[in-house]
């Protein structure tokens, strides 16, 4: 069995195809998927998916790209995170690629998420783009190791991965790991301890080979797993078993789907 640790099934081009998406998930032996919250305005539809479908879970947070969204307070995040189908805080983090002009605002929002995660004792889902030093620094300063979490769609170097691992975070690989020229990510996939790896789709984005350029969906996480397994010289079944165990270890209050 596999787990898609990060997807956006509430986005319109996926939400309109939920019966087919779930059917293909089951056929590909993807036991569950995590629907990621990216702003508070759309959180109700993320939560509705998790309430309606037992194989889906939700997270709550405000992505750094959402500059005009409702600003999350620690209290508001804690209120929404009390729901039993909400398993993590995020997507949160820093993105200096898209927003180079407002780093202070991003950093303060990130700290708010970390403090909420520590208080409700739920892991973090961390977005990091062109901001490795500040991301890792804030995680350390705010004591994020107390709850840990997932470095989602990891695209940095092994040195950055090693430092994230030292903070107690798991490294999650997306379809990018199947791209031929993604050499730095290939190295991270080979070197990260097997008990610290997750796989994801980030659907509807970043479809893996052989679907690159098309709409992504959770059933395609099997191709991500195949890519990581190939880089490590192990079978896809071994990789699937390990990543699923890793998922249920970090989310240790969930009943494992078999």
Task: Write a structural description.
The protein has 258 residues and is an alpha/beta fold. It has one domain: Metal-dependent hydrolases (TIM Barrel, Alpha-Beta Barrel), CATH 3.20.20. Helices cover 41% and strands 17% of the residues. It has an eight-stranded parallel sheet. The longest helix has 18 residues, at 103-120. The mean pLDDT is 96.
Looking at this protein, list some descriptive labels.
17% strand, 10 helices, TIM Barrel, globular, alpha/beta, 8-stranded parallel beta sheet, 258 residues
Spell out the blueprint of helices and strands.
Blueprint (H helix, E strand, L loop, with lengths): L1 E6 L4 H4 L2 H10 L2 E6 L7 H10 L3 E5 L13 H8 L4 E10 L7 H18 L3 E6 L2 H10 L7 E3 L6 H9 L2 E5 L9 H9 L5 E3 L21 H12 L3 H15 L8
Parallel strand pairs: 1-2, 2-3, 3-4, 4-5, 5-6, 6-7, 7-8
Helix pairs in contact: 4-5, 5-6, 9-10
Radius of gyration: 17 Å
CATH level-four homologous superfamily name: Metal-dependent hydrolases
Q: Output the strand order for the largest sheet.
A: 1-2-3-4-5-6-7-8
Give the structural class.
alpha/beta
Q: Helical region count?
A: 10
Sheet of most strands? 8 strands, parallel
